[in-house]
Amino acid sequence: MPSLDHPPSKRSAPPQPLWLRITHWLNAVATVVMVMSGWRIYNASPIFDFAFPGSITLGGWLGGWLGGALQWHFAGMWLLVLNGLAYLALNLVTGRFARRMLPVTARGVLRDAWLALTARLSHADIRHYNQVQRAAYLFAVADLMLLVASGLVTWKSVQFPLLRELLGGYDMARHIHFYCMAAIVCFVAIHLLMVVLVPRSLLVMLLGRTTLRSTAKETTS
C-alpha cells in the first residue's frame, strides 16, 4: 500500500496531499484566531507604549472584552497544538519532511534568495521547495513551538517553573511571546505575497492541483 505522501507514480501524485491541505488550513485558522485574540489580551496589559486597534482584535462583538479574548485564545491554542502535532507527525511518518524540507544550507538559501531577487528563481515544479522556502517553513515551525512554550509560561507560570526559568522568567517569556507573534505575522504576510506572485500555489492548497480543471496527469491513479 502506498504511503500518504508517496504514491507509486510521481505524475499521479497531487502536489499537496489531502491531509496536508487540511492541516495547513486548520493551522491557518488557529493562527489567525490566536493572533487577533492575543492582540486584545495584550491591550489589557501592554508591555510597550502602544496598543492594537480594537477593530482588529478578537474577543467578542466589535473588539470585544478580555474574557472573550481569553476564550478565543485558548480555543485557538488547543486547535493549533493538536493539529500542529498531527501535521508534524504525518510529515515525519510519510517522509515528506525529509523530502521537502531538507537539506538546508546557508549557501543554498543565499543562492536561492539572490535568484528570487533577480527574478530568475524557477517555480515550474510546484512540488519542489527552494531553500528559501525550506528555511522559511522550518522557521515558522520553530517559531510556533516557541510561541506555544512562552504562552504556557505566560498562562500557567507557576505550573511550568522549569520552562519559565529556561525562558528567562515571566517577564521575558511575555516579551518572547510578543516577538514570536510578530515573527509569525511577518511570515504570513510574506507567505501571502508569494501566493500573489505564484497563484498556482493557492490552487494547489485549495484543490490539490495547479489548475481549476482536473487533468489526466493529476487524476490518474
From TrEMBL:
<feature type="transmembrane region" description="Helical">
    <location>
        <begin position="72"/>
        <end position="93"/>
    </location>
</feature>
<dbReference type="InterPro" id="IPR051542">
    <property type="entry name" value="Hydrogenase_cytochrome"/>
</dbReference>
<keyword id="KW-0812">Transmembrane</keyword>
<dbReference type="InterPro" id="IPR011577">
    <property type="entry name" value="Cyt_b561_bac/Ni-Hgenase"/>
</dbReference>
<feature type="transmembrane region" description="Helical">
    <location>
        <begin position="176"/>
        <end position="199"/>
    </location>
</feature>
<feature type="transmembrane region" description="Helical">
    <location>
        <begin position="18"/>
        <end position="35"/>
    </location>
</feature>
<protein>
    <submittedName>
        <fullName>Cytochrome b/b6 domain-containing protein</fullName>
    </submittedName>
</protein>
<feature type="transmembrane region" description="Helical">
    <location>
        <begin position="47"/>
        <end position="66"/>
    </location>
</feature>
<dbReference type="Pfam" id="PF01292">
    <property type="entry name" value="Ni_hydr_CYTB"/>
</dbReference>
<feature type="domain" description="Cytochrome b561 bacterial/Ni-hydrogenase">
    <location>
        <begin position="17"/>
        <end position="200"/>
    </location>
</feature>
<keyword id="KW-0472">Membrane</keyword>
<keyword id="KW-1133">Transmembrane helix</keyword>
<dbReference type="InterPro" id="IPR016174">
    <property type="entry name" value="Di-haem_cyt_TM"/>
</dbReference>
<keyword id="KW-1003">Cell membrane</keyword>
<feature type="transmembrane region" description="Helical">
    <location>
        <begin position="135"/>
        <end position="156"/>
    </location>
</feature>
